[in-house]
Write a structure and sequence with these properties.
CATH superfamily: Aldolase class I
Number of domains: 1
Helix content: 40-55%
Strand content: 15-25%
Bound molecules: the ligand Cc1ncc(COP(=O)(O)OP(=O)(O)O)c(N)n1, 4-methyl-5-hydroxyethylthiazole phosphate
Order of helices and strands: EHEHEHEHEHEHEHEHH
CATH topology: TIM Barrel
Number of strands: 8
Shape: globular
Radius of gyration: 16 Å
CATH architecture: Alpha-Beta Barrel
Structural class: alpha/beta
Oligomer: single chain
Length: 210
């Protein structure tokens, strides 16, 4: 299945979605609302829980022909046969590419650093992620990336660029206009009382740029 690396990138959060039932319901709503990528971001060390939830999300994504991305955990991504997102301390993109194969979607955190993005591209990343664009409730200590970075990146990095951090319906349009192909959202999506409708509203920003 070839993934579309343009649009809304939904990222789960265990505080907002503590049970597997809530997780699956919320993620299905996000997919129904048009999320193109879904990332399972689960920081617990409970391997059994991570495997069970990861497997359930992989099945859900397969049913909707969307791609699941596992945050940080190459072993779990390989076991499920899905994509992977790596932070700078989570292992090398090159090694992940060797293990997961040519078709896997592999993303890399590049903070606000174009040199990191160039290296990720050379190592075989599918997308690069910059942020935090705005103050983030989910990750308050995340370093900040200026919006202008996306304009500079457009000339130098020939991969889809994902924006993350504090993105909501009021501030995402300017990041898309600056050149981000995807916006990755946790709080403004999964804290919504109507996740499907919220996902639709985020997705519409890509078809109706302001
Ligand atoms: C799409 C996307 N971009 C950046 C991150 C941050 O990843 P990382 O640096 O590994 O930090 P944690 O998410 O592990 O706190 C991401 N998860 N997804
Ligand atoms: C994982 C991560 N990395 C930088 S900001 C962030 C959290 C994004 O969550 P939110 O959309 O709630 O700000």
């Amino acid at each position: 299945m070839s993934a579309s690396l343009k649009g809304l990138y939904a990222i789960t959060d265990a505080t907002l979605l503590p049970t597997q039932e809530q997780l699956l319901f919320a993620c299905e709503q996000a997919l129904l609302g048009g999320a193109q990528l879904l990332q399972y971001r689960e920081k617990s060390q409970n391997k059994r829980k991570r495997l069970a939830e990861g497997r359930a999300l992989a099945n859900l994504c397969a049913a909707y022909q969307r791609t699941l991305i596992i945050n940080d955990d190459l072993e779990l991504a390989a076991e499920l046969g899905v994509g992977l997102h790596l932070g700078q301390k989570d292992g090398s993109v090159e090694q992940a590419r060797r293990l997961l194969g040519d078709q896997a979607i592999i993303g890399a955190t590049c903070h606000q650093d174009l040199a990191l993005a160039k290296r990720a591209a050379e190592e075989g990343a599918s997308y690069v992620a910059f942020g935090a664009c705005f103050p983030s409730q989910t990750k308050p200590l995340a370093s900040r990336a200026p919006i202008e970075l996306f304009q500079n990146a457009a000339e130098q990095i020939h991969l889809p660029k994902v924006a993350i951090g504090g993105l909501n319906l009021d501030n995402s349009a300017q990041v898309i206009a600056a050149g981000a192909e995807m916006i990755a959202v946790v709080h403004a999506l999964f804290s919504s009382t109507d996740i499907r409708q919220q996902a639709q509203a985020f997705s519409a920003l890509f078809s109706n740029p302001v």
